[in-house]
Amino acid sequence: MKLTGAQILCEGFLKEGVETIFGFPGGAVLPFYDTLYGYKIRHVLVRHEQGAAHAADGYARATGKVGVCVATSGPGATNLVTGIANAYLDSSPMVAITGQVARPFIGKDAFQEVDITGITLPISKHNYLVMKASDLAEVVKESFYLARTGRPGPVHIDIPRDVFTELAEFEYPDKVSFPGKKPVVQGHPAQVKKAAGLINSARQPVILAGRGILISDACGPLRELAEKAQIPVITTLLGIGCFPESHPLSFGMIGMHGTAYANMAIHNADLVIAIGMRFDDRATAKVAGFAPNARVVHIDIDAAEIGKNIRVDVPIVGDANSVLKALNPQVSPASRLAWIAQLECWKKEHPSTVVRESESLLPQFVISKIYEATGGKAIVVTGVGQNQMWAARYYWYDRPNSLISSGGLGTMGFELPAAMGAKIGCPHETVWCVAGDGGFQMTVQELATIVQERAAVKIAILNNGFLGMVRQWQQLFYEKRYMATPLWNPDFVKLAEAYGIPAVKVTDKRMVPAAIERAMAHDGPFLIDFVVEPEENIYPMVPPGASLAEILEEPYRDEFVPAGNALKEIPNM
Question: 128: domain range?
Answer without folding.
Answer: 2-169
